[in-house]
Amino acid sequence: MNLLLVDDDAYVLEAVKNTLDWKQLQIENVYTAQSVRNAKKIILDVPIHLVVSDIEMPRENGLELISWIRQQDLVIKDILLTSYAEFEYARQAVKLGCFAYTLKPIDYGELEELLRKAAAAEQEELERLDYRKYYDHWNQTEKSRKESFFRGLMLEQQIPGQKDLEAALERYMLRYEDSVRFVVAVCQLYDYEWAYNDLGMGMLVWSMKNVLEELFDTPDTHVECVLSHTESSCIVVIKTMGGDALYKIGEKGKNLIENITRHFRSNCCFAVGNVCRILQIQESFADVAQMLDHCADGEGQVVMQQDFVYKEADYQPPNWQIWESLMQESSSIMPVVNEYLDNLVKRKSANTEILSRFTLDFAHTFRLAYQKEGISTEELEEAGYRIHNLKDAIHSVKECKIFIEKMVGEAARLLNEKQQSNSVVEKVKRFIDENPDQEITRESLAEKVYLNPDYLARIFKKEVGEPIGVYLANQRIRLAKEYLEKTEEPVNLISIKAGYDNFSYFSKMFKNMVGMSPKEYRSQFRK
């Protein structure tokens, strides 16, 4: 489900967004708006299921937003927030059929429960309506019809010829004269981790679409549609109105890069295809995608197809045997990685195929180097893929450097932790071995090595292969066996010396672990 938070206070939006457990509430995307105007725009663009809105806002208020939602005949469950216990607010909320009404300051536990109930009610109503009414609103808009048409034309290859084109235009109720020309462009994001974490994928994509539409809707150009292509890229189809439109699109592309850097703290490459007819759009998109593949050093640039020169390049791997010996130190390996990648750029050989082969070879050699130090493939892959997605690393030289640097840093951290945990575990084992007769608990051991008891138990079992309690019991029984073999002391006294105050418990443990009672063991040993 998708949820929209509406409040003119950015701090409230941030607090709600970062406090609630959206995954547990089964909410996939959280959108935010600081005005009713922006909220309406999001609702018209994106299927929204739940709205949480403040009432008191400048210009239009939350009650007016709910009234507008009812006029659109949308299936949305709404929760209103207010700082004032005004009877008139409550009366209007009831009149509008608002799902819930609650007071600020926000009780997050209460809000979470209201959202859980609202989501269940929304799901029930959608199932009752068989989803048709819910989606009709978006399917009937011209914007949605254009998106479906161009997606079929470019990505799904559903319109191979003139007859198919005419049928598709009729089906989507669209009309384009033969004289109309188009430009296909792709905006490829780089280093967008901050924007993704701050906005969420749904809000990031929506914001990107709005930036593209605002920039390229000019007297000479009109945005026909913006399509999400991958997690990090959007396709924009621009209808051109004038002869120098391509130049103006390139200039606007520079503004786009500035906007993305300023507002999203990210970077991008804006790849622009040549002017084409409608049936050439599929081919033009393929050309732009190929151009991006051959432009792994294009971050922060506008790349025009009309000026782009393709250069074939062969993959020349480094000496991996030498590199393997450098891989355990970031200060040793990163200079040679940077030099290798910078040379690719100088030779104009930086494309996605070469970066992909290099990155995969590096990861393979890297795993071999760290496996020799006791770090498993699973641990390395988990660390590597958690910090950065491999598919993003092959789109630009900078992203490739970031990916490798983070992978090396994460692996070095794992190795350091392993070495420290080995040292800690050895210290704990040595104490148990030397003092099995003392009163020993997991907590007392943790205090000696300044660790959390649960964490100590976890690393001990991982390194030794058995829990602390089992290891301690084995050492105590080992000590008891030595006393039984070498002395004539009574069994009950041996029990105490082996760390067991309870003789019955000692006898039971001994028999379970040795297969016979302490007396039987002494008798058998002396035969």
From TrEMBL:
* Key words, A-Z: DNA-binding, Phosphoprotein, Transcription, Transcription regulation
Q: Where is the HTH araC/xylS-type domain?
A: 426-524
GO annotation terms (biological process): phosphorelay signal transduction system
UniProt-listed Gene3D superfamilies: 3.40.50.2300, Homeodomain-like (1.10.10.60)
Does the record carry Membrane as a key word?
A: no
Q: Which residues carry this modification: 4-aspartylphosphate?
A: 54
InterPro entries from the UniProt entry: CheY-like_superfamily, Homeodomain-like_sf, HTH_AraC, Sig_transdc_resp-reg_receiver, Tscrpt_reg_AraC-type_HTH
Query: In what residue span(s) does the Response regulatory domain sit?
Result: 2-119
Q: What GO MF terms are annotated?
A: DNA-binding transcription factor activity; sequence-specific DNA binding
**According to the lineage, what is the superkingdom?**
Bacteria
Check the record and name the Pfam families matching this protein: HTH_18, Response_reg
Instruction: Sum up the protein's function in the record's words.
Output: May play the central regulatory role in sporulation. It may be an element of the effector pathway responsible for the activation of sporulation genes in response to nutritional stress. Spo0A may act in concert with spo0H (a sigma factor) to control the expression of some genes that are critical to the sporulation process.
This protein's name? Stage 0 sporulation protein A homolog
Originating species: Robinsoniella peoriensis
